[in-house]
DNA sequence: TAGATTGTTAATCGATTAACAATC
DNA sequence: TAGATTGTTAATCGATTAACAATC
């Protein structure tokens, strides 16, 4: 096996590292905005909220983009991470279920600024179709397959109620979508080649409550 | 060291387990709603989207709530998990920043059904104060400390813009809040006794895009 | 008793961390 | 050269998984 091309990542990057790369990228953007051109691992780690050993270990999976004794060039490292996580691409996205949350997601600027382009908003409720949200008209759910093939949509966002989530996922998979971000509090059954990530707002709150209970000594698990 | 009282959890539960307990609870609620009174670890694991070995290992940290050869009593296990993660308590919550996302959170039924009670919505923008969202009037950010002490608020939710997030966190900490759910894309500096969990909508999408890029062979990391 | 299923053990795997040799 | 900082090593820690003894 020969060497990889110019500093390219060797095979596989650990999941934990992948999850932190967007955080580093955001921190680098802040540094660049502040006019910083070079930073040490210590500096960048501080801005990202991790320790420097972890940061250097994570970056080592991508390649050697720093200079010993000097640090990292902000602009160069930023580009390398952006390329690695696909932020140099344009990602057409559809959002299904335009209730309160779908509404918020459609308006969320953090998507468009990272290469995600919302090509359509869909809702199964006829009362909602035709409404304009974030400058885009809501279309009927049945239009999904056509929109996916027309725009080459690879990523779908489910903001529908839990009761509809599996149907939406099935339709997305049938339409050719292989990556799903699911905000519905439901476990989705999908073929193994489909990647599902779940964001559950109330679960995060429940995890906090668990720790809060421990801190407050309110838990019912004390010894007699 | 003597035995703990009736099946109470021994000391500490692993973080990974804590994060899954709300998922099990949700699955148990579904089973109960469907009229199921008893379930095996295999059955419950399927409903929760994990494998049964992991489920049994997780539950073993709480105590022995199953019956060998039989399975788990749905209602009993549900109560035990609810108690363990503090869902038998009432948790007063404040939400700060009532833009699109704050609006969606205020209307999210998944909070109230799990013991979280939104006692106030706050916003620094005078143009928003007085507006009624989800049946609650938006109040000025300056009211935070009074509301926290009045209602004994232990958990704060930040849905403000990133630029304001640290100020909001500082005010929450000063007011006595020790658990924060942060939706702003910002790294917060807080005293170590304060627990911060972060939900970042665009990071989840970026993780999906990374894997999608790999699947599609679009990544710039291939060998020459 | 025979069949079923839990709770636990032990092996494996992946993530974190500190320390430091390499090197700018 | 001396000082600084990366990239890597090796140790540690925590999570996952399969297998099975315990026991209903």
Automatic annotation (TrEMBL), chains A, B:
Alphabetical list of PANTHER family matching this protein: REDOX-SENSING TRANSCRIPTIONAL REPRESSOR REX, REDOX-SENSING TRANSCRIPTIONAL REPRESSOR REX 1
GO cellular component annotations of the record: cytoplasm
Self-association state and partner proteins as the record states: Homodimer.
N-terminal signal peptide: none
InterPro entries for this protein: CoA-bd, NAD(P)-bd_dom_sf, Rex_actinobacterial-type, Rex_DNA-bd_C_dom, Tscrpt_rep_Rex, WH-like_DNA-bd_sf, WH_DNA-bd_sf
HAMAP family per record: Rex
Gene: rex
GO biological process: negative regulation of DNA-templated transcription; response to redox state
Organism whose genome encodes this protein: Nocardioides mangrovicus
Gene3D superfamilies in the cross-refs: NAD(P)-binding Rossmann-like Domain, Winged helix-like DNA-binding domain superfamily/Winged helix DNA-binding domain
Annotated residues for binding of NAD(+): 97-102
Keywords, comma-separated and alphabetical: Cytoplasm, DNA-binding, NAD, Repressor, Transcription, Transcription regulation
Molecular-function GO terms, alphabetical: DNA binding; DNA-binding transcription factor activity
Positions of the CoA-binding domain: 86-187
Functional summary from the UniProt entry: Modulates transcription in response to changes in cellular NADH/NAD(+) redox state.
Protein name per the record: Redox-sensing transcriptional repressor Rex
Family: Belongs to the transcriptional regulatory Rex family.
Keyword check for Repeat: no
Location of the protein in the cell: Cytoplasm
DNA-binding region: 23-62
Presence of the UniProt keyword NAD in the record: yes
């Amino acid at each position: 096996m020969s060497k990889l091309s110019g500093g390219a990542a060797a095979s596989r990057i650990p999941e934990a590292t992948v999850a932190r790369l967007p955080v580093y990228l955001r921190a680098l953007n802040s540094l660049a905005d502040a006019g910083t051109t070079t930073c040490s691992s210590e500096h960048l780690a501080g801005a990202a909220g991790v320790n420097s050993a972890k940061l250097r270990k994570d970056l080592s999976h991508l390649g050697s983009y720093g200079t010993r004794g000097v640090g990292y060039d902000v602009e160069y490292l930023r580009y390398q991470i952006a390329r690695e996580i696909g932020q140099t691409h344009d990602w057409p996205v559809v959002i299904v279920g335009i209730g309160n949350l779908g509404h918020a997601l459609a308006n969320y600027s953090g998507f468009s600024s990272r290469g995600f382009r919302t090509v359509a908003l869909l809702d199964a409720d006829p009362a909602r179709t035709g409404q304009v949200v974030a400058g885009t008209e809501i279309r009927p759910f049945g239009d999904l397959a056509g929109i996916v093939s027309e725009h080459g949509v690879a990523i779908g966002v489910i903001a529908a109620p839990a009761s509809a989530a599996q149907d939406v996922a099935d339709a997305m998979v049938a339409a050719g979508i292989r990556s799903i971000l699911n905000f519905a509090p439901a476990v989705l059954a999908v073929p193994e080649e489909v990647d599902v990530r779940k964001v559950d707002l109330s679960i995060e709150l429940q995890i906090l409550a668990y720790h809060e209970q421990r801190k407050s000594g309110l838990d019912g698990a004390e010894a007699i």
